[in-house]
Structure formats: structure tokens, C-alpha cells
Amino acid sequence: MSRVSVGAKRLLLGRPFRSDTIGDTHLRKRIALPVFASDALSSVAYAPEEIFLVLSMAGLAALSFSPWVGLAVAVVMIVVIASYRQNVHAYPSGGGDYEVATVNLGPNAGLAVGAALLIDYVLTVAVSISAAAANIGSAIPFVNTHKVLFAVIAIVLVTAVNLRGVRESGVAFAIPVYAFMASMVVLIVWGLFQVNILGRDLQAESADFDLVSSHGGTVTGLALAFVVAKAFASGSAALTGVEAIHNGVPAFRKPRSRNAATTLLMLGVLSVSFLLGLIALAVQLGVRIAENPASQLVGAPEDYHQKTLIAQLAEPVFAGLPVAFYVVMTVTAVILVLAANTAFNGFPILGSVLARDNYLPRQLATRGDRLAYSNGIVLLAVAAIFLVVIFEARVTVLIQLYIVGVFVAFTLSQLGMIRHWTRHLADEQIPAVRKRMQRSRVINVVGFVLTGSVLVIVIVTKFFAGAYIAVLAMAGVFVVMKLIHRHYATVARELDDSSWEVVLPSRTHCVVLVSKLHLPTLRALAYARATRPDTIEALTVSIDTAETRALVREWQSRRISVPLKVVESPYREINRPVIDYVKRLRERSPRDIVIVYIPEYVVGRWWEQLLHNQSALRLKSRLLYERGVMVTSVPWQLSSSDGRAEKAGGEPIVGRWGGPET
């Protein structure tokens, strides 16, 4: 029988997911509605631009397809939102697509969704921060020339804020979110009003350029259909914020399901309106977005820097009010950064759930001193910075990797919901309830067909453009999580073996390692003697004849009763002679326990660690693999260490037992 995750078992037994399993109770109190709005609306800042960018490969003739592509994306968005409203009502505990797939399709499907969402969260940060850098760079040229540096610094700052556990207030999130909404409304309405009502001839800065195909010729037939399909796949990035609301249902006020579903509907309407409005305005202003401006934009200056679509719209629309242009670009960048911050909430929580189900290292389930999943936050930041640096903060490249994971989760979630309704319909007898379930199942069937179709289109059109990297990454994460789960299962099975009989050792033999006769060594000798072993001896490795002779003379002069043995090391190696000596002791008396005492001094500053060779740590790591051998560290805290500094005062030195004996 296959193993099911802890959360899935609770649901199968009729018990909902606990809030501390899927959601963070500390987090629930401080997440406000604008957090979800930032993630859902941020894609509007780059999705229309991606549609224009892909269509530019087919030249000017293909630009007439942009409204239809935008309309197709809007239809898919409406269907997905309607489908996820069913998800929210059926699974309000905040488990998201991982919960839906695990419960209804099994652990492997849930794990596939988990892998896709982990990759998606990383790409959310990389894409959002890179898009923020591009928008700020359209207004400030310095940022454009240093986009990678800007993006890395932004990720580091967002990481620091999340590690510090600063509580985001509703006002702090609401101001930029509502400012972005207002700026988009004003930009679209005022721009269309000037063109269509006032009859003003507004043109984007790129409107006078001639756009040619990236292949130098006219794209027709199947090639044109492929380009349009690819543009549709790129525009589907506008759907990426839906999952955040599904995961964040516990953050809403009661009734949570209804409020989350209402929010999903409102943000869906806004996203569709902004998407279609920006595309319509861009077509009327003649915006040209090229994949390679230097070769595709005929008539552009040699030093021409292509601005983002929103920047090319805001400049002519607010030509008489430059401040408005900078406001639009600023709030757009801020909303993108907030969208990245949403991933910093979602990734650690999902990682903790997978870690508790033994699919990820258990360190990811550990909270820091500020109740944040610090390890998950740091892991997300490192992965996002890696992608930003590797792909040079280029949204056009990162977006190719982004959409695959989203639609893998969408598709499996919708399939899981179909099975959910089918299972419940078999037991439901009330006609009104059955009718409602059947309607919900139809909605999820349509959602499955559409999201599955988009997933196929995305993979076919973007596979060699970079989507294969995301596919390989998801497959790799899936396999790694399966191996981690197998490891934890093996460890649990071995540790829980009740057939082992406790056999006490015949004797204990203590070996105290000695390099010099200093305070740490004297303390180790004292502690070893205090345990009253059957036999005890000191061991030193001779790598310098003169130093070894001096140590032996001092040992004899101080009349230490513990015998000192010297082991030669012709290759000046320390670890191997010690390990060989311990092995010989075990071979002579296999039923004896050998306890190795390693004296070591503790420093308190990080740079002091670099000044010491850490030989004790390496030796301990080697001895741990020897059966019948116990390793005991005897620390000596130097004054720079925290513990020693607090107790330095007039406290007498402990460990005088190792001194001269009579």
C-alpha cells in the first residue's frame, strides 16, 4: 500500500488540514488582502509585453493578432478562475494544488505538483524582480545598465525583511497595490479617451520604426500559427497569481471560502480588464516590442534602448505630466517586488509541508527565532539569485521557464477536482446538492481541458526556447524528493528495529588525543579519568621528531600517571594513524568499547575559525563511521567565545586534575 502524506490522511479520514500544517498561524494574522492582489495583478505588467514580443517574430502583419491572442488568454483566465472558485470552496484549508492532487490522485501526483510549485515560486521571484528592474530601467537608464546587480540587491533586501519577520501591515501593502490599480485605470482610460474621444494623435516612441521578422522574411501558414500559439502561451503568464489565493484561504476572514472566492473573482475581472485594456491601447499607439531591437526595428537609432510596454504607453499618455510617468513606473516596480514577496511566504510553507511529509530535508520544517521558516527563505533566495545571474535578469528568457510549472499544477489540480466531485456524487442523495456538484464538475472538466491544452501548447511552443530546463528541473526535484522520502523511510525502519538485543561492552578503553600539553589536554585527561574506564592512555602522532621528544620530556617531568603512546606518521598525516590505532584496539577486543577524547579550544569570532585547521572536526567525522567507537569532544572556551566571555571574571580554571600527581 502506497504511503500517503500526513495531510492527505487527515482528509481521507474526514479531518481537515490543521492550520499549522499547511499555513502559518503567525503568518495568517499579518497577511492582508493586498498581498494576493500583488501576486495576481503583477503578471499584467509583463504578460501583454510578452504577447507583442513573440508576435514581433512574424513582423508587422502578425500584430493584428494581438487582440485575439489577448482575448484567448482572457477566456482561459475566466475559466481557470471559475474552476478555482470550486477548489476554494472544496478545500478551504490552504493546502492548494498540492493538497487537491495528493488527496484525489495519490502521493505521486501531489509530489509532481509540489515539485512544479517549488520551481514556480523560484521563478516567480526571478521573473518579478527582473521585470521590476526592466520597468525601473525604462525610467532610470543607470538601472537598465546594471539590471542584474539591481535584481540581486532587491532579492537580498526582500530576503532580509522576511528573515527579520517584519510584520507587513495592511496599509503598507494596500498603498502600492491600490496605487497600481489606480495607475492602470488612469493609464488605460485616459489613453483611450484621448485617442478615441479627443482625437489626439498619440504615438509610442517606437511607432515610427518598421518592424521586420526575426527571420528576415514573411511568416505565413503553419509558421505563423506556431508564432500565434507561442504568443498565446506567453500571455498565459497572466494566470500565475491564481494559485496564491488558493493557498492563502486561511488568511481570509470568516467565511473564508466565500471571501477567497469573491476576491478571486474580483482580481480575475481586474486582471482581464487590465490585460485587454493595455493590449488595445498598445495597438492604437503603435507600440513595437522586438526580441532583437537592433536587427528587427528598422529606423531605430543605433543607441536605442527598448523600453517596456508600460513605459512606452505611459510616456505619450502623460506627455504633459512627466511626474505621472515616473509614478506609473514606480508603482509597477513596487507591485512586482510585492509579488516576489508573496513567493517568500508560499515557498517556505510548502517546503515545510513537504519536509513534514519526509519529502524534503527536515531543516525546512524548522522555524527560526522569529517564527519564519528561515531555511526555506534562504534556499528560495539563493535559487532565485542563481537564475537571475545565469539569465542576466532577462524577463524574455525567464518567462519561457515560468509557465510550465504553473500549468502542470493547474492541470493536475483540475483533474483532482473532477475525481473529487465524482467520488462525492456517488454518496450524495440530495437532488439540489447533486445538481450543484454536477455543475461544479462540469466547470472543472472545462478547466481541465483548457489548462491541459495550454500546457501542451506551452511545452510544444516553448520547449526548445527554455521550457525544457523547467521540465528537467521539475523532474529532478521530483526524483530527489522521492529519494529523500526513501532515505527517511529506511532510517526509520532501521531505528525502529525491535529485534536488536542490548549487549553491554566487556570493558571500556579510553584514548585521549594529545598534540601539546596545554590546558585543553589537561581537561580532557581529567574528564577521561573521571569516567573511571577500565584502561586509559594518551596518544600522540609524531609528525615532528623534535616536538615529539619535547612533549615526552614534559610529560615525564610533570609526572602524569596516564601512559603516553607515540604513533609514527611517515607522511606527516594525523587522521590515518589515529584511525588505524583505534581499529587495532577494536580488532584485539571486539567486545570492548573505545572512547576517544578529543580536546579542542573554542573561539568566538568567525574570522578566528579561519585561522585554525579544524583537524578535530575532520577526525571526528572519520571516527563516527567506526563501529564500537565513541567520540567525546572536550571543549576549552577561549576568552573570545561567548560562553567564556560571560564567565571570565574571577572564576577558577577547571581541570587541575591533569597536573602533577603524587
Description:
With 662 residues, the protein is of the alpha/beta class. 64% of the residues lie in helices and 6% in strands. It is built from 26 helices and 7 strands. Helix 12 crosses helix 20.
What is the tally of beta strands?
7
Roughly how many Å is the radius of gyration? 32 Å
Largest sheet: 5 strands, parallel
The largest sheet has its strands arranged as 5-4-3-6-7
Give the number of helices. Answer: 26
Distance between the termini: 69 Å
The general outline is: elongated
Instruction: Point out poorly predicted stretches.
Output: 1-32, 648-662
> Which class of secondary structure composition applies to the elements?
alpha/beta
Helix content: 55-70%
DSSP strand content: 5-15%
Mean pLDDT: 79
What features would you highlight for this structure?
disordered N terminus, 6% strand, five-stranded parallel sheet, 26 helices, two-stranded antiparallel ribbon
